[in-house]
Amino acid sequence: MLFPRYSDFDIEAGTDEAGRGCLAGPVTAAAVILGEDFNHEWLNDSKLMTEKHRATLRPIIEEKALCFAVTHLEPTVIDEINILNASIRAMQESIGKLHTTPLYIIVDGNRFKPFNDIPYSCIVKGDSKYKSIAAASVLAKTYRDAYMDRIHEEFPMYNWKKNKGYPTQEHREAIKKYGPTKYHRMSFRLLPDQLSLDFG
Asked: Using CB atoms within 10 A of its CB, is residue 85 exposed (0-12), middle (13-18) or buried (19+)?
């Protein structure tokens, strides 16, 4: 059971990100403002949905939402400011792109930074509690997956189409064999000790 709203404000945006734990690719965030009447039986935390359901829901959310926005932040930014700050910045940038300014923001997780003096609340597991955060999680996940599918064509040996940049054994073995790409996060531990690699 997802709740339509957390605050008493009429215009409330939910925001979430995808890709924090990946070794390659961007961290992607979305922000969504939904109307009170938005409802769909499949809507949930995107991690609990099938890929097919996410793909079906994405255009429905985009059509029915009052507004939405998505932001990719590249590995160079992640390496420069760290993944937590990059995740927060991506969420803030998505909120800033909304054509309607929210009066309140609800954020999935427990960390955020003030943005344009808009009041906000961080909600642990918010993507399984509130519709707007769940919708944002679906958009962030589907947009990021599509991005990883695109760059897979450039570097198919890492199989990003399947692992989406997450640290699977196959992905780590490919890094060991081929080295890192421009899409890898160099500030991350790309290989465990037993797969040590000389980047020289």
From this structure: middle
In a domain, 198, yes or no: no
Confidence at 147, pLDDT banded by 50, 70, 90: very high
Token reading at 40: 């769909």
Distance between CA atoms of residues 138 and 141, nearest Å = 5
Tell me whether residue 108 is annotated as binding: yes
In a domain, 47, yes or no: yes
Ranking 33-42, 95-104, 123-132 by mean pLDDT, the lowest is 33-42
Closest listed residue to residue 133, CA positions, set 109, 107, 112 = 107
Cα–Cα distance, 116 to 113 (Å, whole number): 10
Q: Per the domain annotation, does 181 fall within a domain?
A: no
Question: Judging by DSSP bridges, how do beta strands 104-108 and 120-123 pair with one another?
Answer: parallel
Helix pair 131-154, 51-64: axis angle to 10 deg = 120
pTM of the model: 0.94
Residue 74 known to bind ligand: no
**CATH code assigned at 103:** 3.30.420.10
105: in domain: yes
Dihedral of the alpha carbons of 74, 76, 79, 81, in degrees to the nearest 10: -80
Tokens read off for 154:
């450039």
Range of the domain at 23: 12-153
- What's the total number of domains in the chain? 1
